[in-house]
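Supplementary Methods, section 5.1.

A reviewer requested that the exact input to the structure prediction be made available. We therefore reproduce it here, unchanged from the version used in the analyses.
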Amino acid sequence: MVLNCSSNCVNIGLETSLQTVAAGTGPTWKAFNLTSVTEWEPKPLCFATCGGTEPKYQRITTTVYRAPERVVLDPLPEVEVGKEYNVTCRVFNVAPIRNLTVTLYQGERRLYVETFEDHRNPEAGSVVVTSNSITAQQNDHGEEVTCRAVLDLRPEGPFLEMDSLSKSLETVVFPMDPYLQTLGSVEINTSMPVECEVSGLFPVQKAAFQLFFAGERLNSSNHISGHKVSAQAQVTSISAGEHQLICIVSLGPVTKTAESTVNVYSLPKPTLHIDHPQIPVNTNVSVMCRSDGSKSPGVVMRISDTKEILLSGDGPSLQYSLTAQEEDNGRQFMCKVELKVDGHSVVKETAANLTVFYAPQMSDSSCPDKLTWKDGSEETFICSASGNPPPTVECRKDEVSYNIGIQQQVTKEHGGIYHCNATNAYGFDLTSLTSLES
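The structure derived from this sequence is encoded token-by-token as follows.
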């Protein structure tokens, strides 16, 4: 810095603690170069002596400045629309601070201005400027925010500007709570779809989901439709009981949660065992119904046939006994377990058939003892017998076997007595019938 001291007197000089070298001289002036300014507020004095009088002094007013070293904008928070936020700017190593103006901009709009006229310290320092509270709007999203520091030393000095790097403002809209879509109950070791949905989000693509079931995080996939987004996953539980399904949705600074209780039940399929599934008539039979494995409380077990419930209980097994009769052949027994889950019944069942073997039996309805046929008519000779296995029926007249079930033309030779025999592995039955011609 060069100082020029001018006077009509002679013996012009400069009084200062700073290092100086002569920079020029004239009849009424002398210039001094301050080679190294090491003080923030130097106060050099020009002086001159006229004749034998005392020296006259003139203090020189100087301003030592430093351009801002850095202008930094603090990271902007993601803000929920309708909420308030602040913008903070930091200006480092600048002097004199009283000549500094810091302005915060959003796009071209000034958000906040701060000056420091009352700052008295001439030394370089740093300042922190924080705006008043600003209410976030949705259309603020993506706007660039900038901080500008201006050191104005005019008219004697320069006008210095420095801007921070711009930062984008991000606003979010999260008006509604998440909604969980799932079944209220699921069977153990089976898979169940779950979906967590939330509407009205902005920006919807930045929504982050976390799904938990029984304390374990689920793998999920997101699906976006307009301003609606959902996360979908599959739930499988290996333990029965009530478990919590939790959905956590985060968007910027906003986090919302939805919870649902899922009843995981266990209902193993029962087994049905007939100790003698194929037996002769009048043999004792046991029908055993069992449900093995762990099951939820409240399971009811029943043994039934196609007509009625035969036995019921809440234990792990039931046993029903009977003496097999002819009418029990082909009888279907069912073992059912039933559990009430969320107000509706879950039923599993197993069925088995009983086979009863018995000797043949012929009756008037299956093999009538008298037939009346008309000569020349077409008739079919019918004779059958009940029995299991189905018996073989043979009818003979005069030691000649007669075709049963085949239509024939009636002649006089058809009249007479027929002897019929029904046989199977468990016995036989005999009957005679008379054919009359009319």
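The radius of gyration is 55 Å. These observations are discussed further in the main text.
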